[in-house]
Amino acid sequence: MTNLTKYRKHRQLQRKSLGLLLVAITWSLAMGWLISFATNAQGATPTSEIGTVDVVPAQYQLGQELYLENCSSCHIALPPQVLPTQTWKNILQDSQHYGGQIQPLVDPPRLLVWRYLSTFSRPILEDEQIPYRVNSSRFFKALHPQVKLPRPVEINSCVSCHPSANEYNFRRLTPEWENSN
Ligand code: HEC
Ligand code: HEC
């Protein structure tokens, strides 16, 4: 081999390895992006998990947010399904609240919260008494078939079986209940 061909071979090799290096860099960048994307998606799982009885379509999500904002500062927010529509209506209109006082919501938030609560709860029959406690709500009972509930069941008892009740998740159950189903 002449010196010239030696030199050319060397240059070729250099170019080849530079090309390989570029491929490697591009690859790791792409993988990094993919991995961060995957971890992000994983991080988002708890919030995208369905924690309530029904899936909430986009047009009710603001109403749900406003409900949580206004009604979960003193106690956990109850899912609308556990009480009849009439109960929610009366609670939203009243500043007298279970022996205390609350600031009633004003429109437009009140209307959005009302749309959310009324859509995801059911009306009771006309001659039925309106329950103001989950303990006397048949809708609440219907969601707990065969569950031995504390008597009376109170807004503070939910978390004993629903460990994520504070995050408005009533699907997740404590292990003993998870296994019994
Ligand atoms: C003694 C344990 C216990 C207590 C206390 C309890 N729950 Fe439950 N809850 C359960 C179990 C178990 C289920 C699942 C029942 C089934 O699927 O048959 C359930 C189901 C539910 C569901 C239906 C979830 C779904 O979408 O499948 C809602 C909503 C709910 N509970 C709300 C509440 C609220 C609100 C409270 C407090 C006022 C409460 N629960 C108190 C055990 C309990
Ligand atoms: C200033 C504090 C406060 C705010 C804000 C508040 N509540 Fe209450 N709520 C209470 C108290 C106190 C009780 C009675 C708790 C008890 O006796 O177990 C209660 C009880 C309840 C109960 C009865 C639960 C049961 O079955 O025993 C419901 C339903 C309820 N609140 C709904 C709401 C809604 C809807 C909103 C938002 C419009 C709201 N709360 C905002 C303080 C508040």
Q: Which small molecules are bound?
A: heme C
**Terminal CA distance:** 80 Å
Question: What structural class should be given to the helix and strand makeup?
Answer: mainly alpha
DSSP strand content: under 5%
- H and E order: HHHHEEHHHH
Taking Cα atoms only, what radius of gyration do you get, to the nearest Å?
29 Å
Largest sheet: 2 strands, antiparallel
Range of helix content: 40-55%
Tally of separate helices: 8
Shape assignment: elongated
Low-pLDDT segments: 39-47
Taking all residues together, what is the mean pLDDT?
85
Q: Major sheet: order of its strands? A: 1-2
- Let me know the number of strands: 2
Number of domains: 2
Structure explained in plain terms:
The chain is mostly helical and 181 residues long. It has helices at 3-43, 45-48, 58-71, 85-93, 109-119, 138-142, 158-161, 175-180; strands spanning 96-97, 100-101. The protein folds into 2 domains: 3-43; 58-180, no CATH class. 52% of the residues lie in helices and 2% in strands. The chain has a two-stranded antiparallel ribbon with strand order 1-2. Helix 4 runs antiparallel to helix 5 (109-119). The radius of gyration is 29 Å and the shape is elongated. The N and C termini lie far apart (80 Å). It holds the Pfam family DHC. GO terms for molecular function: electron transfer activity; heme binding.
